Amino acid sequence: MDTMVGLKRTHSCNDLNKAMNGEAVVLCGWVARRRDHGGLIFIDLRDRSGIVQIVFSSDAYADIFKKAETVRSEYVLCVKGKVGLRSPETVNANVATGEIEIYGEELRILNAAKTPPFYIQDNVDVDELLRLKYRYLDLRRPEMQRNLMLRHHVTKAMRDFFDHNGFVEIETPMLMKSSPEGARDYLVPSRVNPGKFFALPQSPQIFKQILMVAGMERYFQIVRCFRDEDLRADRQPEFTQLDIEMSFLDREEILVMMENMIAYLFKETMKMDIPTPFLRLSYEDAMARYGSDKPDLRFGMELMDISDAVRGSDFKVFETVLANGGQVKAINVKGYSQIPRRELDGLVEYVNIYGAKGLAWICYTAEGIKSPITKFFSEEKVQHILSATNAQEGDLLLIIADKPAVVAAALGQLRLEMARRLNLIDSDALSFLWVVDFPMFEYDEEEKRWTAMHHPFTAPRDEDAALIDTNPGQMKAKAYDMILNGTEIGGGSIRIYNRDLQEKVFKAIGLSKEEAMEKFGYLLEAFEYGTPPHGGIAFGLDRMIMLMAKRSSIRDVIAFPKTQSATDVMTQAPSEVSPAQLKELSIKTDIVLKKPAGK
Amino acid sequence: MDTMVGLKRTHSCNDLNKAMNGEAVVLCGWVARRRDHGGLIFIDLRDRSGIVQIVFSSDAYADIFKKAETVRSEYVLCVKGKVGLRSPETVNANVATGEIEIYGEELRILNAAKTPPFYIQDNVDVDELLRLKYRYLDLRRPEMQRNLMLRHHVTKAMRDFFDHNGFVEIETPMLMKSSPEGARDYLVPSRVNPGKFFALPQSPQIFKQILMVAGMERYFQIVRCFRDEDLRADRQPEFTQLDIEMSFLDREEILVMMENMIAYLFKETMKMDIPTPFLRLSYEDAMARYGSDKPDLRFGMELMDISDAVRGSDFKVFETVLANGGQVKAINVKGYSQIPRRELDGLVEYVNIYGAKGLAWICYTAEGIKSPITKFFSEEKVQHILSATNAQEGDLLLIIADKPAVVAAALGQLRLEMARRLNLIDSDALSFLWVVDFPMFEYDEEEKRWTAMHHPFTAPRDEDAALIDTNPGQMKAKAYDMILNGTEIGGGSIRIYNRDLQEKVFKAIGLSKEEAMEKFGYLLEAFEYGTPPHGGIAFGLDRMIMLMAKRSSIRDVIAFPKTQSATDVMTQAPSEVSPAQLKELSIKTDIVLKKPAGK
Fold first, then answer.
1. How far apart, in whole angstroms, are the C-alpha atoms of residue A42 and residue A36?
2. What is the reported pTM?
3. Do B419 and B450 fall into the same domain?
4. Which of A222, A392, A562, B271 makes the best surface tag, with the fewest CB within 10 Å?
5. Residue B588 and residue A586: Cβ atoms within 8 Å?
6. SS3 (DSSP) at A493
7. Distance of alpha carbon A586 from alpha carbon B587, whole angstroms
């Protein structure tokens, strides 16, 4: 192997252009491809910036040519050469540097490479486990490098924005107290305090509130968080959060600040104009019109309540549902009255998944109405249904009758599914909105208790505060979610800043006074030493970058993600550790070790 | 309590000045002090920016005056008022806003406050445990707020610098593989993979090298790291590192890049010019001249070898040391020949701590030489000693004879101690330097094996690489430390990027082939797929900020530090957790729980 001694890299590949014709340059990078042709060796040299073609000629530099003959894919090279123009017929329009090539005059082979297990190029169809095992090769692919660079640019722009707006980035502890409320904590045994454990943060929620008590006024942090959950496709045991908290601002001021932040990010990193303000939709409206608290507004097809239109027919199913406090709602799938019968049957199964026992339909074809249910309705009622749903010839109505929660879930999902099938979603569109006025509590049927819908530090609307003692289910919270294209990318709230109210909320979710003090006593105490009104929000960074990069998995925007079984296949983590390590921590594992892992 | 409804904060306290005379403003903040005087109430309102005086008059707004009478220290207020000029005799030159005051016209009490357990002001003498328990009050003190804001500005400037220089900030995993080499790992039991453990990173060393293999070329990250060590005054179980790695640059290019970074930070955040380049001192020279690999160059008093000058006398102590490969070295404490005898005796005890069995001295007073050892030396030899140490009338020579390592440790510490006692250190000076050419290995007498002086991924100098099989103790590494005022603030190296050499280094430090593969197999394998030459460095952020803020403890620049027993006294972490939590993780603790911690 050679060294770079005496050579200093002058440019990245993509810096080069035809204005530099004749200039001497020194490049470093990887061999993307080598071709030999008529006494010439062509090497596509790739670095982080792009690719450029190097030409070695047997006539000009015989010894260097000889060395170039030994070069193979993914070798690491340092090349000195002169920029030259390609002849018109050899210009490569697919590459940014396609008008030029470099005539190699000096070649250093900095390292050799074995043949990689997959091609280092975009859109390559490789098993993801193989990609993760050889992540260092996967990350050499231009699209992965672009993803990581986008992530860098976005977080840089975030920090510029917050710094400019008077926010201070403050680091909060990773080794903190375990107080599992929602998800499971990752625990860290303490050696110095045997029998005791730290927890890794699920979020810095309490610390950021403590920072408001401490008078820091405007805090943000881009911070790692941890949740020991069973993993879904878009979850990771460790994830990154943009965490924000501010004092003395009301809800509306916070929402505007965050809209400006988002607009700034897209402008700075993607040159896109995001119109503000975003739509604010109440939770109630979102559930009623889209059957979801994270509605995708890139298309219409809203849910419509036809309970009044259908009421009083001979159709027992609808009548029973309505008599029991249920509702009948429909979506109008415009222009799809010719839906195959087979597909309709499939849709019935589809809505079953979301708890709906049945699906009714009305096809308004040129030949008239086709439907299994219209025979139960008078002509007048059928007209009512058609006009209530704005149905016209060619349209398809899909109808679900059930309890409101089931109608919302099933018809909301059906709306998304039909939009996908009919290709109604513009994948280039960016549809932001706020969902606001969430219920304060949800009733957990299993545990037979109220749980906080956001988290127990969320403040109720002022007008609802008094309901805490009498009717918590009726309370609305000062909570807000930011939604992008049907995905929640951020959520936050105005916080409680008063000990008495905080204690009542803990009580409402079933924490005894002792438990509340054990877990959150220091926060309750802090509230009594001059706590300003405050509120904040947290954004899921991985998901935000994923949407910006138009990827379908957050694993594509994380340098070293874990698999769905929470393992790192490259380094083989987690792993067994030595008995000595466990002994020092005063813990034992229930599992019998198959082999000791070194000393 | 009131709300801010209808009021919108217009300024921070420190924004106000006499040019705004007559302007209406809305301020929010905490009551730093209230005084009542002749029908007026004066409130010093404090926010993150500073303090301003508010005046409420019983004549002008009787109801507001009444409300102001209820206000006490640390109450949270929102005040609307008009800026007015103070009369010349009431101007307060100690406060930035001392020329003005605000005539209060509207007062909202946003929250009350109990009397804090200590005063919220600078330079207050409070037990640190109390400060940590009420950290939210401690952090309200202006000096603590300044420290956290400095930290924010420094990390912001770092990110600006690295972004501008083509570095990409990339997040590496926190849940990684345990491979304890130096310090103890913090472990995290895996629930999904029972019996297996993650480790929290001691540094992202291997991941950043993998990112170089992945072609990212220039990486940085400001990242939390963890070491489960017994804590000294300036250590924390979790600490923050500025972590950097780059490809295709040689040592000198890396040092220059880092000097530029430091100069940029000090210029941006403290308006100070740091001269570059920094001095480069070899490890050998640093040890010889200062007895330390992190010399404080804010003063002279170098160690001088007087072995040749003293050799061949009747003084048995020196002769024996020299005969056994030891050395005799001195420092010249200029102008301190009148040192009290008592203090000299204390110095003997002082050097004992560092392993020196004795301390000789020569006082060159106006009355002549005073010394317990000169009687063993000829007149000529005494003159030799004086000239070799550049001693003049009034000087004090302190002399240690021992093995080189002991002389360095004891005389190096004595040099620092004498400088402190004689107040030779300019606390405003900033003395940066590089120590380079460290030995590759140190011999661990206890474990009877070589250990890596930096870490086992450090490359040897090219000319020394061949010694790995024959004489590892003679090898010098391409390692470098950045020293500021006698403290190591950063350390790094050019890395090995070749599997064969890396395996030999693992072998040299006593790792078997199997252990090396078990722990670092993926890195060894990665080296074979086209690894560029690369190197990097890591800076201890906490310590760097501490030095910039002129604090003596890193706890003063960390928002929520742990105590020396690795606990958080505010939140009471670590804590006992529920048996159910442990069971889910398939672990048991050896310690009997005193009480279950909730459900």
1. 6
2. 0.95
3. no
4. B271
5. no
6. strand
7. 10
Number of CB pairs < 8 Å for A and B? 378
Residue A378: strand, helix, or coil: coil
What do you get for the CA distance between the two ends of chain B, in Å? Answer: 36
Alpha helices in A69-175 (DSSP H): 128-133, 135-138, 142-164
Q: Is residue A291 part of a domain?
A: no
Q: What is the three-class DSSP state of A200?
A: coil
Taking CB atoms and an 8 Å cutoff, what residues of chain A touch B572? 177, 522
Query: What residue numbers bound the domain in which A216 lies?
Result: 145-271+433-556
Per-residue pLDDT of chain B (599 residues; tens, 9 = 90+): 899 999 999 999 999 999 999 999 999 999 999 999 988 999 999 999 999 999 999 887 889 999 999 999 999 999 999 999 999 999 999 999 999 999 999 999 999 999 999 999 888 789 999 999 999 999 999 999 999 999 999 999 999 999 999 999 999 999 999 987 678 999 999 999 999 999 999 999 999 999 999 999 999 999 999 999 887 767 899 999 999 999 999 999 999 999 999 999 999 999 999 999 999 999 999 999 999 999 999 999 999 999 999 999 999 999 999 999 999 999 999 999 999 999 999 999 999 999 999 999 999 999 999 999 999 999 999 999 999 999 999 999 999 999 999 999 999 999 999 999 999 999 999 999 999 999 999 998 888 889 999 899 999 999 999 999 899 999 999 999 999 999 999 999 999 999 999 999 999 999 999 999 999 999 999 999 999 999 999 999 999 999 999 999 999 999 999 998 999 999 999 999 999 999 999 999 987 655 554 44
* CATH number of the CATH domain containing A342: 3.30.1360.30
> For chain A, how many structural domains are there in total?
3
| Residue B554 contacts residue B561 (beta carbons within 8 Å) | yes
Residue B388: name the closest of B354, B355, B362 by CA: B362
Q: What does the block give as tokens for A28?
A: 């470093």
Partner A, chain B 386-415, Cβ-Cβ below 8 Å: none
Could you say which of A398, A425, A452 is where a domain stops? Answer: A425
Contact criterion met (CB < 8 Å) for B598 and A515 = yes
Does any domain span residue A107? yes
B434 strand-pairing partners: B280, B482
Does B572 map to a domain? Answer: no
Tell me whether residues A177 and B568 touch, CB distance under 8 A. yes
Tell me how far apart the alpha carbons of residues A190 and A133 are, in angstroms, rounded to a whole number: 32
Interchain pair A75, B530: CB under 8 A: yes
Residue from A488, A468, A484, A485 nearest A476 by CA: A468
Smallest Cβ–Cβ distance between B169 and the set A140, A152, A171 belongs to: A152
Which residue in this structure is represented by tokens 């059957």? Answer: A291
ipTM of predicted assembly, 2 dp: 0.95
Show which of residues 538-567 on chain A sit within 8 Å of chain B, judged by CB atoms: 558-560, 562, 565-567
Q: Is B119 in the A-facing interface, judged by CB distances under 8 Å?
A: no
Specify if B316 maps to a domain.
Answer: yes
CB A560 within 8 A of CB A570: yes
